From TrEMBL:
The species this protein was found in: Olleya aquimaris
Record-given protein name: Phosphoenolpyruvate synthase
Enzyme Commission number: 2.7.9.2
Taxonomic placement: Bacteria, Pseudomonadati, Bacteroidota, Flavobacteriia, Flavobacteriales
The protein's enzyme class: transferase
Catalytic activity: pyruvate + ATP + H2O = phosphoenolpyruvate + AMP + phosphate + 2 H(+)
Function: Catalyzes the phosphorylation of pyruvate to phosphoenolpyruvate.
Length: 967
């Protein structure tokens, strides 16, 4: 009996565990398919839900004295998805409490999912409600609308939420029913998309509606119907009628009388009232599109600036609804605002930048940071090419920041949905295209074409349109297969010989022949620094460029980026003889580097106090992280933590141990691997076979090192040093374990980010095991691939380990002590993100160019999540918003002073007086903490290449250009 009870208990426990397990994407995909074909979708049965908490059958309504609503319940499978995967399909608003639906603890996931569900339903015939949308009584539109109105009036009373989530709230207003309006723009795009899929000849019209929507599109659709009428079905005729009805609503004239009446009924601020009065007066006088857009832009700007001064959730709701209506009108009018001269184009860009602010795509402080650049033309008749380039950079930045805002708000949920529903990936593009970013991008493109022409910069990227959005980041050239990745890159297995176009590269990118990414991204991420160091051509392009290049996916191409930033991408058949010659064997072997081992010290077999080393020990006793930080500790004792170093010698002595099942030591196994690889090469075997052999052998070594028995004398020494240096026992101090190899301090090679850093480890066992993991990381596929083609003796890479106590910084990042883009040795390039580990992994960081006098914003942060380091060890994730900059004026001042001291201090340790440094640091309560310094290495061969010089343009950038110049 006891055994039976125990068995049942274990079975129940096992069942509960299974219930709590997350469903896989494949299982969710299958469940979605089931819902699509179910006449009730994810719904189970209709019930009455009474205010007294009772739930009744459909034929047994709530008593007369008790309010109630009727809607569907959910199938057990749908409820399980909510519990295990936090996924909400077929959401019924009226069934929720406001906090549940807002879902603030999960970065507003449930609210965003509602929006994505509506998008999928609009483009995929109801999606999970393909048949369930006809399930009568599942939800009541009047109940949904009443709930939505209450929801918005409630959350809009929260000043902090309105300020920090202005963009998200305005977007939610377009999707959550609350006043009878629908998201007409999205409906119009969805209807045209479905028709183009059914009738391929309608594709050109659909592209026009998506890319350059204007009122004349109604005539275009009607004309299409006239010529195609006999060839379409009755159902398709109904779909066309529905599209035309939506378009008529969308392009309906602004109802000035209704607007005037609505505004007079609201208690608004003087600035908002004045801007409305101006708009209404203008609208009554048959204005030009330019004037109407300028006045709407002013209204949107003032609403954004004064929204917190408007009191009451109901008033704010009405005001934001009006702002969305005005935005729709403005988007239509932008297609009618044609610019012919440079002056008119600059005025349009400036106006649309204001709209970007007013609609929440950029923040007030971000607009202020570049407003001066955009206004340069106001009091001038002529501008230099340099000045026009500055304006172009600022204008292009607004487009990129705007698109990044959409991604920052929705990318997490879109990524989740894309794993089981690929159609979800189009959601972000749909949102960007329904914003002012589309028209702003077109205006900036026109400016880019003119500036490129004046500067003699000509991109030659296949045969695609709008190449002015493409710009080079790192000089270099490559030949290989073109691979275009539109979507999440994390599951992509990259090939060293390919050229990749990413929307966003993975943070642990393995080496590739060439890279192009949508927008510039983070200038000082490890991927960007490695590309710059190794001469890997790297360029930025627009998302539209990426989509245009998808048709060339899989082709062999030549790719080059010049020192001036112009880009060439051409098919193999179009390569010149000069370009073909670049890939001869002699040319390809020029950039091989030897790891120096002559002065390496392998005799030190004890843990070293970081205070005992300085920069002269780099590459000898330990790597540059520890050596240079020891140097800084002497100069900045209050800003550098204490540290311990596990030197090369301890690693080397452990490699003398016998490797399991090999009858040889770990060290002999490693060297034999490279000897065998060299023998294979001399026998003429292919690079692919040699690399496969090496990776297989090193994978075995990597796994064996993870199991290597550590000497008890070493472990005892480590425990003692923790007490001596950190003033506490191991296991009581959370620490970082940072790999620090001798290949990271070479004049022509940086190993930035190749090997392992372990964050905030506290438990003794995890620290001891962590030592082996850090050692082993030098033999991972990624680490080996980045270095193998550039090091002549990769077997002589030795890892040391730097152990430093964790500092739970408020924000952290990287400084390069030169202007990466400007090339000025006196400038500073700084990138910061909130929390720990900022900027190094390619986060969308706040990036600045800090000069002796100025502090120029290159990009604001758009990373919604960040990590902090609790004293208990490990990491904890938080979410942030972007209404304030990360770095303040005191931080900027401290950064300038730090750079001055570093240049003075490190000058004696480098032959190059202008040597730049890569510095990692952070701020805690405005106090600066230094974590790492290493030489910043650029690829001089790529910069001095005769071919790259030959394709670089020569321009007099001081040449003055009349603002009356025709576009």
């Amino acid at each position: 009996m006891k055994n039976t009870f125990l068995f049942c208990f274990i079975l129940l426990l096992f069942s509960a565990t299974l219930m709590a397990q997350k469903m896989s994407p494949e299982q969710i995909k299958e469940q979605v398919s089931i819902y699509k074909n179910d006449i009730r979708g994810p719904y189970h049965r209709i019930k009455w839900f009474c205010e007294d908490g009772t739930i009744r059958e459909p034929k047994d309504p709530c008593p007369d004295n008790v309010e109630g609503i009727q809607h569907a319940t959910f199938k057990e499978s749908a409820l399980k998805l909510r519990e295990t995967n936090h996924l909400f399909f077929g959401e019924i608003l009226a069934s929720n409490t406001i906090p549940e639906f807002l879902d603030e603890a999960n970065n507003y996931s449930r609210l965003k999912q509602y929006q994505i569900n509506k998008y999928l339903a609009s483009i995929d015939d109801g999606w999970v409600l393909r048949k369930g949308q006809f399930y009568r009584g599942a939800l009541q539109s009047e109940d949904e609308e009443a709930w939505g109105k209450t929801f918005f009036e409630t959350i809009l009373r929260d000043d902090q939420l309105v300020q920090s989530k202005y963009y998200l709230i305005r977007q939610a207003l377009k999707d959550i029913p609350h006043n009878g309006d629908d998201n007409l723009a999205q409906t119009m795009r969805s209807q045209s998309k479905l028709l183009s899929e059914a009738i391929p000849k309608f594709m050109d019209a659909r592209i026009k509606i998506h890319g350059q929507p204007e009122a004349s599109d109604i005539i275009m659709v009607k004309n299409f119907l006239k010529t195609t009428n006999a060839k379409i079905s009755e159902a398709q005729q109904k779909d066309f009628n529905a599209l035309l009805q939506t378009m008529e609503q969308f392009y309906a004239p602004l109802d000035i009388i209704a607007l005037e009446k609505e505004i007079k009924a609201l208690r608004l601020t003087p600035d908002i009232n004045t801007s409305f009065e101006t708009l209404i007066e203008t609208a009554k006088q048959d204005p030009t599109s330019e004037q109407l857009i300028a006045d709407i832009a002013n209204v949107l700007y003032n609403i954004r600036q004064d929204i917190l001064a408007v009191k009451g959730g109901s008033t704010r709701l009405k005001l934001l609804d009006v702002s969305n209506q005005l935005e729709n009108k403005l988007l239509i009018e932008t297609q009618n605002w044609n610019t012919e001269t440079l002056s008119e184009n600059l005025h349009k860009i400036k106006t649309l930048a204001c709209v970007s602010l007013g609609t929440g795509l950029i923040e007030t402080w971000e607009y202020s940071a570049i407003e001066k650049q955009l206004n340069q033309h106001d009091l001038a008749d002529h501008l230099s090419i340099d000045q026009l380039n500055d304006i172009l950079i600022s204008a292009r930045s607004i487009v990129e920041w705007s698109a990044a805002t959409t991604k920052a708000n929705y990318q997490d949920v879109v990524d989740t949905y894309t794993t089981f529903e690929p159609l979800a990936y189009g959601f972000i593009d749909d949102r960007v295209r329904s914003s002012i970013a589309l028209s702003m991008g077109n205006a900036v493109s026109h400016l880019g074409v003119l500036v490129a022409k004046l500067s003699n910069i000509e991109n030659k990227v296949m045969s695609i349109d709008n190449q002015s959005a493409i710009r080079g980041l790192n000089p270099g050239y490559a030949f290989g297969k073109l691979v275009v990745i539109d979507g999440n890159p994390d599951e992509v297995e990259v090939n060293t010989n390919n050229i990749y176009i990413f929307e966003k590269p993975p943070s642990d990118l393995k080496p590739v022949a060439g890279i192009m990414t949508v927008s510039e991204g983070n200038l000082v991420s490890h991927v960007q620094l490695l590309a710059r160091n190794l001469g890997i051509p790297n360029a930025a392009l627009s998302y539209d460029n990426l989509k245009d290049l998808k048709s060339f996916d899989g082709q062999e191409v030549f790719y080059a980026v010049s020192n001036k930033g112009n880009v060439i991408l051409k098919a193999k058949k179009d390569m010149s003889k000069t370009e073909q010659a670049l890939f001869s064997k002699q040319e390809r072997t020029k950039n091989v580097i030897e790891v120096p081992t002559k002065d390496i010290r392998l005799d030190v077999n004890t843990v070293v106090n970081m205070r005992e080393v300085d920069a002269s020990d780099s590459g000898k006793l330990c790597g540059p992280k520890a050596a240079n930080l020891g140097e800084l500790k002497k100069q900045f004792p209050e800003q550098v933590v204490e540290g311990l170093i596990i030197p090369f010698g301890i690693f080397r002595s452990h490699m003398n141990k016998e490797m399991p099942n090999q009858n040889k030591s770990y060290w002999t196994y490693l060297n034999d691997t490279f000897k065998e690889a060299n023998a294979m090469k001399s026998q003429g075997q292919s690079e692919e076979n040699i690399e496969a052999f090496q990776l297989k052998a090193l994978d075995k070594l990597h796994k064996a090192i993870l199991e290597i028995p550590l000497d008890e004398s070493f472990v005892s020494d480590l425990r003692q040093q923790f007490k001596s240096v950190f003033k506490n026992s191991i296991g009581n101090v959370p620490v970082f374990l940072r790999s620090d190899t001798n290949m990271e301090d070479l004049k022509e090679f940086t190993g930035a980010g190749l090997n392992l850093t372990l964050f905030n480890i506290k438990d003794e066992d995890k620290i001891i095991e962590g030592v082996k993991h850090v050692w082993a990381s030098a033999y991972t596929e990624r680490s080996f691939k980045w270095r193998q083609k550039y090091l002549s003796n990769p077997e002589n890479v030795f890892p040391s380990i730097l152990i430093i106590p964790s500092v739970d910084v408020d924000y952290s990042g990287v400084m390069i002590t030169k202007g990466i883009n400007s090339g000025n040795d006196n400038d500073l390039t700084v990138a910061f993100s909130r929390g720990a580990g900022g900027a190094v992994d390619g986060q969308m960081a706040e990036t600045r160019l800090i000069t002796t006098k100025d502090n120029l914003l290159l990009a604001p942060a758009r990373q919604p999540e960040y990590i902090r380091l609790p004293v208990t060890g490990g990491t904890k994730k938080y979410y942030t918003s972007f209404e304030r900059p990360i770095l303040n004026e005191k931080n900027i001042k401290d950064i300038r002073q730090l750079a001055i001291k570093i240049r003075q201090l490190m000058a004696g340790h480098s032959d190059n007086k202008n040597q730049a440094y890569d510095v990692e640091f952070g701020f805690k309560d405005d106090k600066l903490w230094l974590f790492q310094i290493r030489p910043f290495v650029e690829n001089k061969q790529a910069k001095s290449s005769e071919y790259l010089a030959s394709i670089s343009t020569k321009t007099d950038t001081n040449q003055l250009i009349s603002l009356n110049t025709k576009l």
